[in-house]
Amino acid sequence: MHMPSRDCCFFWLNWFFCFFFTIGLAEDPYVSFDWSISYITASPLGVPQKVIGIEGQFPGPILNVTTNWNVLINVRNNLDEPLLLTWNGIQQRKNAWQDGVSGTNCPIPAGWNWTYQFQVKDQIGSFFYFPSLNFQRAAGGYGGIVVNNREVIAVPFPAPDGDITLFISDWYTKSHKELREQVESGAGLGAPDGILINGHGPYRYDNAAVPDGIAYLTITVDPGKTYRIRVHNVGITTSLNFRIQNHNLLLVETEGSYTVQQNYTNMDIHVGQSYSFLVTMDQPSGSDFYIVASPRFVNSTASIKAPGVAILHYSNSMGPASGPLPDPPNEYDTHFSMNQARSIRWNVSAGAARPNPQGSFKYGQITVTDVYVILNRPVELIDGKWRNTLNGISYFAPSTPLRLAQQFNVRGVYKLDFPNELMNRPAKVDTSVINGTFKGFMEIIFQNNDTFVQSYHLDGYAFFVVGMDYGVWSESSRATYNKWDGVARCTTQVFPGAWTAILVSLDNAGMWNLRAQNLDSWYLGQEVYLSVVNPENDKDEVPLPDNTIYCGALSPLQKDQAQRINFFSRSSSRSKSMATILAAIFAVLFLTCL
Ligand SMILES: *[C@@H]1O[C@H](CO)[C@@H](O)[C@H](O)[C@H]1NC(C)=O
Ligand SMILES: *[C@@H]1O[C@H](CO)[C@@H](O)[C@H](O)[C@H]1NC(C)=O
Ligand SMILES: *[C@@H]1O[C@H](CO)[C@@H](O)[C@H](O)[C@H]1NC(C)=O
Ligand SMILES: *[C@@H]1O[C@H](CO)[C@@H](O)[C@H](O)[C@H]1NC(C)=O
Ligand SMILES: *[C@@H]1O[C@H](CO)[C@@H](O)[C@H](O)[C@H]1NC(C)=O
Ligand SMILES: *[C@@H]1O[C@H](CO)[C@@H](O)[C@H](O)[C@H]1NC(C)=O
Ligand SMILES: *[C@@H]1O[C@H](CO)[C@@H](O)[C@H](O)[C@H]1NC(C)=O
Question: Is the CB of 437 under 6 A from ligand 6?
Fold first, then answer.
């Protein structure tokens, strides 16, 4: 029998090694982060405040990853209350265990740590993370998520010369604990104390409007270059108009979808929304320019002293920004903002930043299987407490997270009976869940009966925004739907006295949060969960993680934090068995060679 030569043998060994370890694993690398979440002192509006920092930073670090990467984030809760971080817009495909909202995870107790582990899969774009419990977002704790394309995937615009993330937000000098008490008491939030850009107060563009001594943000750019500017409204309740003096904003992406590329002089960005613009530094560089985020739709009596103002500094600039701030859109033109929203369309010919579930790029031709008309009302008293409702139900968060209750068959935690429309019955507080049909195609109409803009976010999915209009939605409204290039995103605005319609393909099994992004409404119960169960056993569904924290009815399963299994033994059983097989083949080849 002819024995393989040593060289040949090593060739195969080498080949095997290279194939699996450079191609196999290099394709889906692991990156890990260790984040301590703690209070830090910051003075965004000149008043020292306790804000939530991540690794001592406010805003937190940018999670800069590439699609298909496996991300491990060991979160240490050094706050004085329970914590969960949620990854706004990251779809957590078949992996609701990592979603970080009260219906999917037990909170990380103060003093504990917990490692999120998820794969950013088939999505490319701009998202952000934030603390999801107890009104904590009002104290910060947020940061950006950039999901880059793999190099083999084309992007429908030339590579920009730089990548800049801006967080714009309303801001209150009261702590998140004071604010939540105020909201519970029915007093509402009132007008914010200011608007921040990347955690900084306004540049002193006007001595009367802005006090001295406030630190502001400066972005330095080179003349002639083009930058991708990702803008997130991470605020708690205020819609903001974003603009840069004398510069066009070329819209290219929103929440993981490439848009038809159009220039805007300003953009209304509602709570929880994310956009990418390409901005070319094409102005004569005599001076700096203003970057502005100003509140929209707030009554002038309650209006805020100063908008958010940062500085765009050309590296060869010879002087400070000057002149009046660039004009906002007309406050009383209620149609401006809706028309602008309708003008944002999907570039259907661009390579997909996100996959098209079941050919849903032709979403207009798919048969709708379920219709929900979801109405929100202004804050109301239910059993003596101020609550917000959806279809007359204010969400009650049970002590056992819904997804865990589902996994362990804990009965009585929730009911799959969320109504398709407002019922003729008194409002109530309940844990009523939407029973989604796996692989169904759902139409949801949000009808906003409140007096301010709401934005709604769905975890686990991107949905197509197909229509919005004033008045009450009716079946004939469907004739106005955009059935061709409505943009797929995860957060949509609903104007007061108006409706917004979305379509979503329920191809991601899990228990998914549908919430108002406006923190006050959300805190008072304006949310619901959507249960999507695959009736077949799907081997790709990520199993319950080994490090799951248990609480509520499942607390007896919880071990002491010190006894927990370590970091490296937590990969899924599938990848563990794959690793064992690879190791065995490698050993056999190696021994044969000797
Ligand atoms: C993000 O990572 C990519 C490469 O993975 C790098 O080119 C880019 O500069 C990084 N961006 C930021 C903002 O750090
Ligand atoms: C807590 O952090 C330690 C490392 O400091 C890690 O070994 C452990 O797995 C973490 N716990 C959880 C539940 O992720
Ligand atoms: C859409 O994407 C295609 C493909 O990348 C690109 O060539 C085209 O310019 C884009 N169209 C618009 C209107 O943005
Ligand atoms: C957008 O505006 C810039 C000037 O700022 C211009 O060069 C570019 O052609 C415009 N693009 C589109 C798609 O209108
Ligand atoms: C603005 O004022 C009008 C009329 O007083 C009132 O109905 C509305 O609720 C107010 N809006 C906000 C956002 O406070
Ligand atoms: C939920 O929907 C599934 C079909 O998707 C159905 O089989 C089941 O009976 C429903 N459950 C309830 C409680 O209505
Ligand atoms: C809310 O609903 C009531 C009753 O149908 C209606 O009179 C009112 O105009 C609605 N308000 C808004 C802002 O939709």
Answer: yes
- Does residue 135 contact residue 179 with C-beta atoms inside 8 Å? yes
Distance CA(402)–CA(398), nearest Å, equals 8
Smallest Cα–Cα separation from 206: which of 303, 312, 307?
307
- In the structure, what pLDDT confidence band is assigned to residue 512 with cuts at 50, 70 and 90? very high
Which string of DSSP letters, residue by residue, matches 463-476? EEEEEEEES---GG
Domain ranges, ordered by start, for the chain: 30-343, 365-533
Ligand located closest to 265 CA: 4
Contact 376, 446 (CB under 8 A): yes
Q: Which amino acid is at 123?
A: Q
Q: What is the pLDDT of residue 122?
A: 82
Residues 6+ apart with CB under 8 A from 155: 124, 149, 258, 351
Only one residue has tokens 């008293």, namely: 381
Residues 163, 227 contacting (CB under 8 angstroms): yes
As a whole number of angstroms, the distance between CA 411 and CA 551 comes to 15
From 299, 453, 518, 521, mutation site for ligand 5 pocket: most ligand atoms within 8 A of C-beta: 299
| 175: enclosing H helix or E strand | none
Residue 458 to residue 463: CA distance in whole angstroms: 8
Cα Rg, the chain, nearest whole Å: 25
- What are the tens digits of pLDDT across the range 91-135? 999 999 999 999 999 999 999 999 999 999 888 999 999 999 999
Distance of CA 312 to the CA centre of its chain: 26
* pLDDT (mean) for 132-150: 97
Residue identifier of the C-alpha nearest atom 7 of ligand 3:
156
| CA-282 nearest atom, ligand 4 | 5
Enclosing H/E stretch for 147: strand 143-148
Q: Whose CA is nearest to atom 12 of ligand 6?
A: 416
| Ligand 7 binding pocket includes 449 (Cβ within 6 Å) | yes
pLDDT at 153 (0 to 100): 82
The set of residues, in sequence order, having a beta carbon less than 8 Å from that of 260 and lying 6+ positions away, is 344, 345, 346, 347, 485
30-343 and 365-533 agree in CATH topology: yes
Collapsing DSSP to helix, strand or coil, 477 comes out as helix
430/428 Cα distance (integer angstroms): 6
Could you give the residue ranges of the DSSP H alpha helices within 234-344? 334-343
pLDDT at 573: 39
C-alpha to C-alpha distance for 306 and 323, rounded to whole angstroms: 16
Indicate whether 490 pLDDT > 80: yes
Rounded mean pLDDT of 227-244? 97
**Domain 30-343: which CATH number of 3.40.50.300, 2.60.40.420, 3.90.640.10, 2.30.30.220:** 2.60.40.420
Domain 365-533 is found in CATH 3.40.50.2300: no
**8 A C-beta contact, residue 428 and residue 394:** yes
Which-ligand-closest: CA of 261? 3
Which ligand ends up closest to the CA of 498? 7
For residues 181 and 94, give the distance between their C-alpha atoms in angstroms, rounded to a whole number.
36
- Distance (angstroms) between ligand 6 centre and the Cα of 437 equals 8
E strand or H helix at 276: strand 274-280
Q: Tell me how far the alpha carbon of residue 250 lies from the centroid of ligand 4, in angstroms.
A: 7
Write the residue with the smallest CA distance to atom 2 of ligand 2. 113
